[in-house]
Amino acid sequence: MTGPPPDGGVVRGGGPVPESAAPRARLLVLRALGLGDLLAGVPALRALRRAFDGHELVLAAPAGLAPVAGATGAVDRLLPASAPGRAVPRALDWTGPPPDVAVDLHGNGPPSHRLLQDLGPLRLLAFAHPETPEIEGPPWYAEEHERDRWCRLLRAYGIDADPADLLLPRPRTTSPAPGAVVLHPGAGAPARCWPVERYAAVATVLRERGVRVVVTGGADEGDVVARLAKQAGLPDTDVFAGGLPFDRLSALLAAARAVVSGDTGIAHLAVAHATPTVTLFGPVPPSRWGPPAHPRHIALWHGPAGDPHGRRPGPALLRITPDEVLHALSGLPGPTRHPEGRDTP
Predict the structure, then answer these.
(1) Domain ranges, residue 111
(2) Phi and psi for 146 in degrees, rounded to 5?
(3) In angstroms, rounded to a whole number, what is the distance separating the alpha carbons of residues 56 and 71?
(4) What is the average pLDDT across 116-142?
(5) Are residue 146 and residue 203 in the same domain, yes or no?
(6) Is the dihedral of CA 154, 87, 76, 345 positive or negative?
(7) pLDDT at site 14
(8) What's the CA gap between 250 and 212, in Å, rounded?
(9) What is the mean pLDDT of the chain?
(10) What are the distances in angstroms from CA 4 to CA 11, 35, 135, 272, 278?
């Protein structure tokens, strides 16, 4: 799957509903953010799927995330919605009757609350905010881990949610580099980008040890990928720039020996495939966005916290050395496979 059909598309189960059938109740979930945000929201999405199994679950998110939404097994249809940065979309292209249930997994309001309220849902689940006193949700805690936050929201409304329910099924696509260590130097902001020369130093040592190293980068990260590949002397076959399609990227990470990256969506996708990871944090601490506690995931961070939107690598990130990353990699275990083909938490 490379994206939604023109009408938003069905990404989970079932075919078209016969015209004679009664229309399904609809559940609208707002999370119009990035890859890492969607993956951090998977436990909440699955909890909603279980609680409202008879509803059509519609996810308002960027159109490019349709394949990811489909892989969660929780979403029926993606409603394209996005805004610059982490802003709330101005409007949603919702048609037909109001949602039976709307859930704000985007933020603590009030703009995201009001965007959903404008659609007239019969029921709205959201955190409390003083500017929307009509919503009697739980309080928002700024320092809470992202996965825990949204599960707590749902539990406040009587919906059982497990933050550990985050793994994705094994990809069917063959990996272009099975057993390689994947380095991903890019991130959503310069403050979260570890210096390229340090990634290159890690790559050089690994290759001297006989380990295959590949580098990945998004559509707008060609320059940083090229610099890393040149400094590390990587062959063209081990350079995946320009943003791999989701199926190939997912397969690459799922079959990797380990993934080294900053605090970005690639780290979350590797965790979702139970691939060993070394994630370099700074300026945001792993207590808010880090991997679950497990021997195969190592989060490196030397606080204090800083500006996540800064134009230069944060001081905490710069305290991480190549030797520290190499030491972390040497201590990682391999992934454990579930007998049904799904990795264990």
Answers:
(1) 26-156
(2) -60, -45
(3) 16
(4) 97
(5) no
(6) negative
(7) 40
(8) 18
(9) 91
(10) 8, 16, 32, 22, 32
Q: Where would I find the H helices in 53-136? A: 66-72, 111-117
pLDDT surpassing 80 at residue 32: yes
Task: Give 138-207 as a DSSP string.
Answer: PPP-TTS-HHHHHHHHHHHTT----TT--PPPPPSSPPSSTTPEEEE---SSGGG---HHHHHHHHHHHH
Residue pLDDT, tens place only, 74-87? 999 999 999 998 89
- Domain with residue 279: its CATH number is 3.40.50.2000
> Is 193 a residue whose pLDDT tops 60?
yes
Q: What is the pLDDT of residue 339?
A: 33
Burial (CB < 10 A; 0-12, 13-18, 19+), residue 345, is middle
> What 3-state DSSP class applies to 310?
coil
**Is residue 190 included in any domain, yes or no?**
yes
Asked if 257 and 234 touch (Cβ cutoff 8 Å), the reply is no
Amino acid code (one letter) for 113: H
Q: How confident is the model at residue 336 (pLDDT cuts 50, 70, 90)?
A: low
Query: Is residue 130 one of the residues assigned to a domain?
Result: yes
Identify residue 301 by its one-letter amino acid code: W
Question: pTM to 2 decimals?
Answer: 0.90
Shared domain check, 187 and 152 = no
Comparison of pLDDT for 163 and 340, the residue scoring more: 163
* Paired tokens of 304: 């204090």
